[in-house]
């Protein structure tokens, strides 16, 4: 059933485009987009641009995930740190991170550091907030049980607090990865001269709609594959969970 609805919509789109119910210029048939996708991959264009976007995303996600999880955990277990940092997190988090791009371009110049840092900031705040929430919402009875069994300090953290927060941390990582991808594609629209976002924008300017849809479909496929990969990693790490898909 999960595949039936998308398949039906694609079939309807194909029919409407073939019968010119909708303009094939603006809504090319999915089969046409599929042939273009295969052709551009064979030519190496899409593969090279996908690698550019994936490299940016990998660096941005690493820059966001490691400090984001560490800061979220520290804020959760240390009240003074939370009181000092939380107001700034609450102030910056609602701001669309793409608005930081002009400032980073001024400071760092037009190039990869500004692009990657813009994507990293989008993921960073989401990961911090999710990690903090995982620590704050954990069952306090677990702490009591851990202390009763002699777990204190670092042992209490590694054996009780971190495992209890991991499901929410993984949720934050998945959301952060998606946000980083969205922001990087927007950056490639605006400032970059490479990447899948740049391909979408360039083909839109030339009204090459099959190529535009092909690049757009590849962005969606990458986002789906990466978030599903994180979910699979969560299932392997959190084997004690009944259902990590919830």
Task: Please state the second-level CATH architecture.
Answer: Orthogonal Bundle
**Which class do the helix and strand fractions yield?**
mainly alpha
What is the CATH top level name? Answer: Mainly Alpha
Shape: globular
Poorly predicted regions: none
| Percentage of residues assigned to helices | over 70%
Mean pLDDT: 86
- CATH topology group: MetI-like fold
Rg, nearest Å: 22 Å
The succession of helices and strands, N to C, reads HHHHHHHHHH
Distance linking N and C termini: 18 Å
Number of domains: 1
The count of DSSP E runs of length 2 or more, i.e. the number of strands, is 0
**Treating each run of at least 4 consecutive H or I residues as one helix, how many helices?**
10
| CATH homology superfamily | MetI-like
Please summarize the sheet with the most strands. none
Strand content: under 5%
What can you tell me about this protein's structure?
- The structure is a single chain.
- The chain has 246 residues and is an all-alpha fold.
- The chain has one domain: MetI-like fold, CATH 1.10.3720.
- The chain has helices spanning 4-18, 30-43, 45-77, 79-92, 101-108, 112-136, 140-148, 154-190, 196-205, 209-237.
- The mean pLDDT is 86.
List the helices and strands and how they pair.
Elements: H1 4-18, H2 30-43, H3 45-77, H4 79-92, H5 101-108, H6 112-136, H7 140-148, H8 154-190, H9 196-205, H10 209-237
Helix pairs in contact: 2-10, 3-4, 3-6, 3-8, 5-6, 6-8, 7-8, 8-9, 8-10, 9-10
Offer a few descriptive terms.
79% helix; mainly alpha; MetI-like fold; 246 residues; globular; 10 helices
């Amino acid at each position: 059933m999960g595949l039936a609805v998308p398949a039906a919509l694609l079939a309807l789109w194909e029919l409407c485009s073939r019968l010119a119910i909708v303009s094939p210029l603006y809504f090319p048939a999915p089969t046409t987009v599929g042939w273009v996708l295969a052709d551009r991959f064979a030519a190496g264009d899409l593969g090279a641009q996908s690698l550019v976007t994936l490299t940016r995303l990998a660096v941005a996600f690493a820059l966001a995930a490691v400090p984001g999880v560490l800061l979220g955990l520290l804020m959760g277990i240390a009240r003074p740190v939370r009181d000092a940092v939380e107001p700034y997190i609450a102030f910056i988090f609602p701001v669309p991170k793409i608005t930081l791009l002009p400032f980073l371009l001024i400071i760092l110049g037009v190039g990869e550091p500004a692009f990657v840092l813009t994507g990293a900031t989008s993921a960073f705040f989401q990961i911090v907030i999710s990690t903090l929430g995982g620590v704050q919402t954990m069952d306090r009875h677990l702490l009591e049980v851990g202390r009763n069994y002699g777990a204190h300090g670092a042992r209490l953290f590694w054996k009780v607090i971190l495992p209890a927060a991991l499901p929410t941390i993984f949720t934050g990582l998945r959301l952060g990865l998606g946000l980083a991808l969205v922001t990087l594609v927007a950056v490639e629209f605006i400032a970059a001269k490479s990447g899948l976002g740049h391909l979408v924008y360039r083909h839109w300017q030339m009204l090459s709609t099959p190529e535009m849809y092909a690049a757009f479909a590849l962005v969606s496929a990458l986002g789906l594959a990466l978030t599903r990969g994180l979910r699979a990693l969560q299932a392997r790490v959190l084997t004690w969970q009944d259902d990590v898909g919830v």
